[in-house]
Amino acid sequence: MKLIEVKNCYKVYNNGVTAVADLNVIIDKGEFVFVIGASGSGKSTFIKMLYREEKPSNGKVFVGGVNVAKLRNSKVFKLRRKIGIVFQDFKLLPKLTVYENVAFALEAIGLHTKDIRPKVIKALENVGLKDKMRSFPNQLSGGEQQRVCIARAIVNEPKLLICDEPTGNLDPDISKEIVGILDKINKELGTTIIMATHDRDIVNKMKKRVLLLENGVLAGDDKKGSYIVHESN
Amino acid sequence: MKAIRILIRGIRDAFKSVVRNFSLSTAAITCSSITLILVAVAMIISYNVKNITQDLEKELTIVAYIKNSGTNENINTLKASLDAMENVENYKFKSKEEWKLEMKTYSDTFSTALEYLETNPLLDSFTITVKDVTSLKETTEEIRKFEFVSSADYGEGIAENLVTAFDVIEKVTLVLVLALVLVTAFLIGNTIKLTIFSRKSEIEIMRLVGSSNISIRLPFLFEGLFLGILGSIVPILVTIYGYVLLYDHFNGYLFTQILRMTEPFNFILYVSMLLLIIGAVIGMVGSYHAVRKYLKI
Fold first, then answer.
1. Domain-by-domain residue ranges, chain B?
2. Between chains, do B210 and A104 touch, taking CB under 8 Å as contact?
3. Which residue, A66, A230, B39, B148, could crosslink B180 as a Cys pair with Cβ 3.0–4.6 Å?
């Protein structure tokens, strides 16, 4: 059952750069998909279009049956509540504790305080950080901060988790740990995961579906993939 | 219920944020305090000048004397004409006999001199108050047209100059108040923009985790409101204590008995209330606009 369908999608920025051209992708519920490609290949634009940070210049982007390309700015928050996003730079609030950072996502959507606590604790347990919930982000390692970011992304139990180079700032061992957590979330919670990455080792080890973008065009789609190396790479 | 929760969280987060961003909050509060003190000073000057001008205008009257040859019929004619004149607020007639009696009380010399004279040398008079002092001259000239009127005067020159001068001062201070309110809006707005700029990543995260625009804005709106209210406390205290001290120091009169200061109560309460409203509204409007910049609306 498809969760995401991108149809004839183009994205041309105001400066004339074509980031994505004639992109057609279908991703089913429960899939774990790597999106790979060189810098400037359109990975981030593709990812951003899924959570409607960018609007396609042309074409359709269906997420959970809704064409997000047509979504009004004032309604984007409804889409964001159904998806979790993990960033390379974590985007944690430095003045909030780990618990508060994760709870922030639930408070933002107006959930009752008594419902927030169990959900936050469960999410922190999922990423193995329950014992650090009173720490502040600057007291954590990079890997731990990324785990907080993942906990914040999954606390609302989204059907889709979008990860934009989540291991970009981490060393190989920690990166494997993070991808392991994502894999566990995918398997245990059935969350669809789309992860943009540059990390060949991880892609080769995981044997998941791989989408290769080159100059904004889908250059490869390997269902049981490894890191696809094209001549240009 | 959800709306109330979002509202309560907005207030709580705003309060936390004012405390957590202490240095920027202090900057915003200081900035609004200084400009609101200037607004308060300009408001006090403007209101006092307005009151002094009104007082002076009330004092301005036309005094018309009837010739010695004037008859009762003439007096009645003038009374009827004054009743018909649009600009005449009211008038008071004083006969020469009444004048004589009054003047006798002034001093013994007057009394003896007036007793000594066979005929009363004084004249019947009308003291006329007008509605619009700017038409004082025209009304006086209309009265002068009557043959039996010996003279009609209103203190030409001095009165007009004084009224014009105060009129100008009143207008200037009013413009000053408006300009200062605008400057205050600009300064407070910009300082709040700075505090919000330093927290744009917070706004970005709120957007990414699915906060609606209203729930993102709400804490910032309350923060602007708090900063505005906190910024108006010092100006309010300065207004209350400063004006009462000034009023007591001058005994309610500025330099001369003619220039009467406005009484402190309820005037300063009214100014204080205005300062509070200006601070609060500008704080809210400033943060509303600043947040708007970081929201895709």
1. 2-56+161-294, 61-153
2. no
3. B39
Minimum CA–CA partner of A95 in chain B: B20
Confidence of residue A118 (pLDDT cuts 50, 70, 90): very high
Could you give the count of Cα atoms lying within 13 Å of A81 in the half-sphere of its Cβ?
A: 13
> How does pLDDT run across B28-50, given as a tens digit for each residue?
889 889 888 988 988 888 888 88
Q: What is d(CA B16, CA B189) in angstroms, rounded to the nearest whole number? A: 20
A107 touches chain B (CB under 8 A): yes
Q: Give the β-pairing of A192-196 and A160-164.
A: parallel
Pick from A80, A91, A95: CB nearest B210: A80
Percent of chain B with pLDDT over 70: 99
Given an 8 Å threshold on Cβ–Cβ distance, is A110 in contact with B5? Answer: yes
- Picking from B152, B173, B176, B154, the residue whose alpha carbon sits closest to that of residue B57 is B154
- Which residues from chain B sit within 8 angstroms of residue A155, using beta carbons? none
Q: Give me the percent of chain A exceeding a pLDDT of 90.
A: 67
| Average pLDDT value for chain B | 85
Contacts of A51 in chain B (CB under 8 A): 208
Instruction: Confirm or reject contact between A114 and chain B (CB < 8 A).
Output: no
Tell me which chain A residues have a C-beta less than 8 angstroms from the C-beta of B204.
Answer: 91
* CA distances for B85 relative to B72, B129, B135, B140, angstroms: 20, 12, 12, 11
Question: What residues in A contact B6, CB-CB < 8 Å?
Answer: 110
Residue A13 has pLDDT above 50, yes or no: yes
Q: What's the ipTM?
A: 0.83
Q: Into which CATH architecture does domain B61-153 fall?
A: 2-Layer Sandwich (3.30)
Measured CA to CA, the distance from residue B220 to residue B263 in angstroms comes to: 39
